[in-house]
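Work Package 3 (structural annotation) set out to generate three-dimensional models for the target panel prioritized at the project kickoff. During this period the team completed the workflow that converts sequence records into discrete structure tokens, so that structures can be stored uniformly alongside our sequence database. As a representative example, we reproduce one entry of 268 residues exactly as it appears in the project archive.
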Amino acid sequence: ELQLALMGRSTRMESSRRKVSEIATALSSKTEIPAVARHAELIEEILTDAWWTGLTVPIVERARLRLREIVHLIDQGTRAILYTDFEDELGAPTGVVLSPAADFAAFKKKAREFLSQHEDHVALRKLRMGRPLTPLDIEELEKMLLEAGVGSPEDISIAKDTEHAQVRGFGVFLRSLVGLDRGAAQKHFAEFIADGKSADQIEFVSMVIEHLCKNGVVDPGMLYDSPFTDRAPDGPDGIFEEAEVDEFLTRVRQMNRTAAPDVSADAG
């Protein structure tokens, strides 16, 4: 449909642009998956006005070929776009249908932008600093987004059911948008790397810290895939002793879980 619009055979350019942008937005939150990460630059470009300026059919064709391999990785439970065939969306027109939750991808983008402007919020600072959240913190963050018109109750509900790095909830959803403070991440692993670790081991931990800063959480299973295996082909098992692997993965999971509310924290 987009290609036809560019060739003057369709007047639905804006509609096509919106659909493709929604797909790119949904994929932009999945860059922790190596297959998606390889196309991160293209995905980010599609979300800019510059990419759409002077757009040509060959450019669209290249984008279609690259993204059709990964569009299926959008979470089915929170998928903002229902499509019969992504290849057809950027090619010949077919019955592409937007679901009732079609605005969720846009909500994530708006939420990311809004939160970046409110980093001084107490609960949000706790989230970015890796400090345990309380249920009240989560309620305040939900209220803030709703009152600002960033999202709807349905968006919040979908976000609460989103799972990142084996942790489910609104807190981890928000952490995936705002990332983790670099100083907090470094401090969390400081004791682990202080005990005479090699340069390769320190570099591997640094890669994990970098991922946490950008994505907020990291699934331990990812450490056994690219780009981490580009540094250590066997993942952490190949550069750390068994006991060290256990300690390292425990620290990773501990940091991930700080994005989930600590129910006991409100008891007092």
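The chain is about 55% helix and 5% strand.
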